[in-house]
Design brief:
The chain has 3 domains: 11-115, no CATH class; 116-211, no CATH class; 226-261, no CATH class. The two termini are 51 Å apart. 66% of the residues lie in helices and 0% in strands. By secondary structure, the chain is an all-alpha fold.
């Protein structure tokens, strides 16, 4: 500053910059996470907001009080609550995080423990409904196959089908409660392989159901911007299906690198 003949930063200026970096650091990190591509799932939204709010609140209750940026912290907290309060209380967003193997209900226990039981009950209801649906599909498929292969079995239907009774609601609920209990007792898992879902098709199915939406459109916008690298003037005659396959391969090429590393 002296060499370019400008006024040097005062101690107050330096303190302000340090406080500003301390306050805005969690906000910048949260934005990077939500706009990233590695964890672009709806279930990442509430835990990310929860951590950001907790870090902001820590600035207010820290051992060293803020000199300049306390109004900024209050404005950020108020803004987050105003913008995201409907989502913070949205059951689908809560379930999206609850069925994510990295978060489950750990984030909610740290943020709002009084809501854990309500979300847990909703998880049990979702798993119960999914188990019942899979059982009914399996029963219908088994019945169709049986009729096709052995039409004469219809003659004995009143005797053979009566004992084969599908699980009652209590059976489904009991199994759902066991699954959810085991799931919530598990450790946080970053990977999304079959092992992360305990090998349970129901849990991976519910993860897909609630986590298909993304928390930010940034990753989608970046993906669409790759289209110009494929549909060039010399390739303007690509069929729709071919273009779609090329876009799919380009958007998922990082999985090939991960397989190579393994």
């Amino acid at each position: 500053m002296t060499r370019i003949k400008l006024s040097n930063f005062t101690n107050a200026d330096i303190l302000y910059l340090k406080e500003y970096a301390q306050v805005m650091g969690p906000v910048a990190t949260a934005l990077d996470l939500l706009q990233g591509e590695n964890q672009a799932y709806l279930g990442c939204l509430l835990p990310t907001l929860g951590v950001a709010m907790k870090k902001l609140e820590k600035n207010l209750s820290g051992s060293v009080p803020l000199t300049f940026c306390k109004p900024l912290v209050l404005a950020l907290l108020q803004g987050i609550k105003k913008r995201f309060d409907p989502l913070l209380n949205d059951l689908e967003c809560q379930l999206a995080a609850a069925f994510h193997p990295r978060f489950r209900l750990m984030w909610l226990q740290n943020r709002e423990p009084d809501r854990v039981n309500a979300v847990k009950e909703a998880m049990v209801s979702q798993v119960e409904a999914c188990l019942k649906e899979e059982d009914e599909v399996a029963a219908a498929s088994s019945s169709d196959t049986s009729v096709e292969e052995n039409p004469e079995d219809d003659w004995y239907g009143t005797f053979t089908q009566a004992p084969v009774e599908r699980g009652s609601r209590n059976v489904y609920k009991s199994k759902a409660e066991t699954l959810v209990g085991t799931w919530l007792a598990g450790l946080s898992r970053v990977d999304l392989g079959d092992g992360a879902f305990m090998g349970e098709k129901v849990l991976s199915k519910l993860f897909i159901k609630f986590n298909t939406p993304v928390p930010s459109s940034a990753a989608v916008e970046r993906f669409f911007s790759q289209g110009k690298d494929i549909l060039k003037p010399k390739r303007a005659s690509l069929a729709d299906d071919t273009f779609e396959m090329l876009m799919f391969l380009r958007g998922n090429k990082h999985h090939l690198r991960n397989l190579g590393d393994g």
